[in-house]
Specification:
The protein is α+β, with helices and mostly antiparallel strands. It has helices at residues 90-99, 113-122, 124-129, 132-140, 146-154, 160-164, 172-175; strands at residues 17-19, 26-30, 34-37, 44-47, 51-57, 65-72, 80-86, 103-107.
């Protein structure tokens, strides 16, 4: 009656995975609008509408776990992190984030987010003008996949490569005839 409405989100239990968002390993449940972990106190909740980009870090051959870092749209806040996520869960986590229009990146090491965000915050407009997270990905060796482009567009980042069409490169396979 006072105008506030409760909205319930049903978790995708088949996408659940374990990670450490705070003190201990908990079951994390993706939903259409959030990532939740309710086994520890305080409960872990990431509202995806607050997320600018998700970074999968320490993804390298031979490592069994990686860290999932959430960079907020409010770039003045330090990122949230879930550590020790089993690498076997990487594909389904990236697919879920992509389905939620969240840009994802991968890196073989952890980033120094405090320094990175400080640098971005010195010239936010310049950061997006120079390619935003896409330029950041090229520095880490991560390619620009179709889902990542959609995630960047959803996050409000500009895509200067679309303006001049320089992103398209024909596949070698297209030129070959059988």
């Amino acid at each position: 009656k006072n105008g506030s409405q409760l909205e319930f989100d049903i978790p995708y239990t088949e996408l659940s995975f374990y990670g450490v968002p705070a003190k201990q390993k908990v079951l994390l449940l993706p939903t259409p609008k959030a990532l939740i972990g309710l086994e520890d106190q305080p409960p872990f909740i990431v509202n995806l509408s607050d997320v600018e980009v998700a970074s999968c870090e320490r993804v390298a051959f031979g490592l069994k776990e990686f860290d999932l870092v959430f960079v907020w749209k409010d770039l003045s806040k330090q990122p949230g992190q879930v550590s020790t996520v089993p690498v076997a869960e990487l594909g389904k986590i990236k697919n879920w984030l992509d389905s939620c229009d969240i840009l994802t990146m991968e890196a073989p090491a952890n980033f120094l987010w405090k320094k990175i965000l400080q640098s971005i915050n010195e010239d936010v407009e310049g950061f997006y003008r120079e390619g935003g997270w896409r330029s950041f990905q090229s520095e880490t060796g991560e390619g620009g996949e179709e889902g990542e482009v959609a995630g960047e567009a959803a996050s409000g980042g500009e895509d200067p490569e679309d303006a001049d069409g320089s992103e398209y490169e024909p596949d070698d396979e297209e030129d070959e005839s059988d």
